[in-house]
Structures are given as structure tokens and as C-alpha cells.
Amino acid sequence: MPNLSPLSSTLRPETTSDIFRTQPTQADVDAVERLVRSTGVFSADEIGIARELVEENLAKGVVASGYHFLFVDGPNGIEGYTCFGPIPGTNARFELYWIAVHPQAQFSRLGKRLQIASEEAARALGAVLMIAETSTRADYAPARAFYERQGYRLLADIPDWHDEGDGLAIYGKKL
Amino acid sequence: MPNLSPLSSTLRPETTSDIFRTQPTQADVDAVERLVRSTGVFSADEIGIARELVEENLAKGVVASGYHFLFVDGPNGIEGYTCFGPIPGTNARFELYWIAVHPQAQFSRLGKRLQIASEEAARALGAVLMIAETSTRADYAPARAFYERQGYRLLADIPDWHDEGDGLAIYGKKL
Predict the structure, then answer these.
(1) Measured between beta carbons, which residues in chain A are less than 8 angstroms from residue B162?
(2) Which residues of B touch A158 (CB under 8 A)?
(3) B90 to chain A: nearest residue by CA?
(4) Residue A23: is its pLDDT beyond 50?
(5) Do residues B59 and B48 make contact, with C-beta atoms less than 8 angstroms apart?
(6) Contacts of A156 in chain B (CB under 8 A)
(7) Which of A20, A149, B13, B168 has its CA 20 to 30 A from that of B125?
(8) In chain B, which residues have pLDDT < 70?
(9) Domain ranges in chain B?
(10) pLDDT at residue A137 in the model
């Protein structure tokens, strides 16, 4: 499988056939916003949070921030990325905070490769469980189906969590 | 009911018979740690998080940090406090991140007064739902019973969330 990224910083090439960039740069704050915005499914609030997580990593470093990244760079910017890290107050439980792939990239392939690499990276950091939270809204059905195909199990479904008619689906997968 | 705190900064005295201090100071970082530690139920990780929330408020201010506080000061330090704020990515949903009362204070009274004042303050900020998360462990039974007495409903129960045998109980109350 071809490498899709410059190799300035690489992730455990022995455990995955993919190599992703792990170190964010200042330019990624805007680049992540452009990518997340391109998907058309995230609110202004959520886009702000995506930016913040990159900024927190840049300000505090990966360990203190708790925000780990995998990036796939393409000719026109970031084609996909994930952000994940340990859930504060838990023992070796991690959360996949973000996974986003540009609409022009094959979500089913790039999304899956990013997901698998994130799980491998989390496991290498000691994680025993990966949590993924998403919405119960109809337009998030592809996201829920994606997690279910990747072996995630629905752990909780809380109606009206985000807003009226917009519940919270909490998925988990043992690593 | 007597006021328990200096009135340098006060919370909506028209909506509650209690008046609590809302503005943290640098000294509260250590004072909150001492209080939280005195309860005997929180881990080192959790105590670190309690400190961080005060630090975030001091560094960014209440709005940007999203961490609101109510403090009850006594002759030997903080007797009780809450920390609450809007849940990122939700519309007017708030979470009660912390409520702690010194073992020598009457938990049933001071805890309840802090809880009610936090709900009133959140409602004044537009909140329609207050979330409280705690553990399913046996030693957290008093915390769960406390929320249930205050009208909180169990929205989700996720086994092994924090650790093996230490699940997550998510409570919610419409405001």
C-alpha cells in the first residue's frame, strides 16, 4: 500500500502497513478546520472544538494535552485525520475524539485505515478500550454504520443529549 | 440561612437563599485539592483534574474555560464547592463536573444547597439539562443516592468504563 504522507514523523511502521504523520503543525489548525468543514456534517461549535484540540497539542505537547493525531496529507491539504487519547479519570480507556475524511477521498478505505491505525497506536500506548461517541441523528447513520462495521458495540444511547432530537450514541471496542 | 462566604463576588441572590463565592483565586488550586483529598473517595488522577479545572478558569476566564464555580469558605478552608459548565458540542446542556463537601460539613445539607444553587446558576446561563457522571462502584453508592434524591434520573450505565468493575453512571435532570 502506498504511503500517503511525508515521513517527517512516523507511527510504528512495524504494526501497520500504513504510515501516518503524527505531529501537528501550526498550519494544521486551519487545515483541520477546512477538512472538517468539507464533510458538511459538523456544526460551528464542533469545528471550533476540532481546532482547539490541535491547538492544545501544539501548546502543551502530546502527553500533557492527551491529544494524539494521525494525519494523511494529500496534494490539496489534509485528506483525513484522527484525534484520540486517554479519557481522563480512567485506566487505559481511550476515546477517538475525531475521525474525518475528505468527501473526495474514499471514506470506506481511508476511514477504515485511519481507524485501524488509531486503534493500534492507542494499544501501543496501553489502551484496552476505545470509545467513540456520535449522534443518534439520521444524518449520522453512516458514522454509526462505520463504527459497527469496525467492531464497535453500542454501549449507551441517551436521547436529546446534544439537543432536542439529537441524542448521544456511545460506542466501545475492546483493544 | 447564614451566608457562609465572603461576598466579594456573589451569585444571583434573588434566586437562592444562599450566596456563594463564584470567583476562584490562585490559592483555590491547592485549597480544592485539600478539600477533594479530604473526602477520601477520589484518585490521584481525579484530584489532578480538579486542580486543572480551577487553573483553566484562572488562565482563560469563566466563559472561555467553560468552568463555573461555587465555593463555600469556612474558617479552615473550603467547606464545599461545585464546578459546572456547558458541555461542548451541545445546545444548553450542562455538566456538574465536581461537587465535594468536607467530611466535617453536613453533606446532606451543604451538598444539597450547593447542588440547587449550581442548577439555578446553570439555568440562569440558559441550561436546560444538567448531567452528572459518577462511578457504579459500591463506594460511590452515597453519591448515586444523593443525585437520585435531587431528582436525577439514570440515563446510562456503562460497565468497566473507568476500569474493570468500575463502570460509569450518567445521570441527568431537566432544569
Answers:
(1) 89-91, 93
(2) 155-156, 170, 172
(3) A162
(4) yes
(5) no
(6) 155-158, 170
(7) B168
(8) 1-18, 106-108
(9) 27-135
(10) 95
Global pTM reads 0.83
Per the structure block, which three cell numbers stand in for A17? Answer: 502497513
pLDDT at site B75? 86
C-alpha distance from B89 to closest chain A C-alpha (Å): 6
pLDDT at B108: 54
Query: Is B93 within 8 Å of chain A by CB?
Result: yes
Share of chain A above pLDDT 90, in %: 75
Min Cα–Cα distance to chain A from B156, Å: 6
Question: What is the predicted pLDDT for the residue at B17?
Answer: 55
B62 in A contact zone (CB under 8 Å): no
> Would the CB atoms of A161 and B43 count as touching at under 8 Å?
no
Name the CATH topology of B27-135: Aminopeptidase (3.40.630)
Does domain A27-174 match CATH 3.30.470.20?
no
User: Is B161 within 8 Å of A46 when comparing Cβ atoms?
Assistant: no
Q: Which residue of B41, B55, B91, B154 is the best one to mutate when testing the A interface, meaning the one whose CB has the most A CBs within 10 A?
A: B91
Cβ-contact A53, A97 below 8 angstroms: yes
Question: What is the average pLDDT across A73-85?
Answer: 93
Instruction: Mark yes or no for CB contact A156/B156 under 8 Å.
Output: yes
pLDDT of residue B14: 38
